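Is this the right way to post structure tokens for a design question? Let me know if I should format differently. Anyway, here goes:
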């Protein structure tokens, strides 16, 4: 019995980190060290997790090689308004961040006697 099966009845949150196309690190919040075991992954389960990663990506998908499945699972849509908004944010980030830092960290006067 694997740790995932042993804890199926509990409300655990799992976070997975794809390391390579064939290696996956899974972290279960709330699981004890003793309840965890290794999990043998089939090719179908790996593809399912890869597909879920592509579907749920917020912005970028990184890979060390091109994979046509990514374009099939999630075609690239170009939104000019979203792109322009991100560019404006990027260009003004430095100035707005400096203003926030000045407000957050007021300058102290140093008096030398």
């Amino acid at each position: 019995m694997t740790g995932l099966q042993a804890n199926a009845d509990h409300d655990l949150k799992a976070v997975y980190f794809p390391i390579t196309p064939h290696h996956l690190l899974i972290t279960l919040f709330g699981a004890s060290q003793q309840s965890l075991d290794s999990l043998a992954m089939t090719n179908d389960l790996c593809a399912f997790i890869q597909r879920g990663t592509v579907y749920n990506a917020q912005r970028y998908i990184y890979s060390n090689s091109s994979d046509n499945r990514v374009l099939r699972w999630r075609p690239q849509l170009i939104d000019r308004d979203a792109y322009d908004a991100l560019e404006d944010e990027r260009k003004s980030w430095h100035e707005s961040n400096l203003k926030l830092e000045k407000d957050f960290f007021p300058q102290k006067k140093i008096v030398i006697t």
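Format looks fine. Someone answered above. Worth noting: Residues 1-8 have pLDDT under 50 and may be disordered. The first helix runs from residue 3 to 6.
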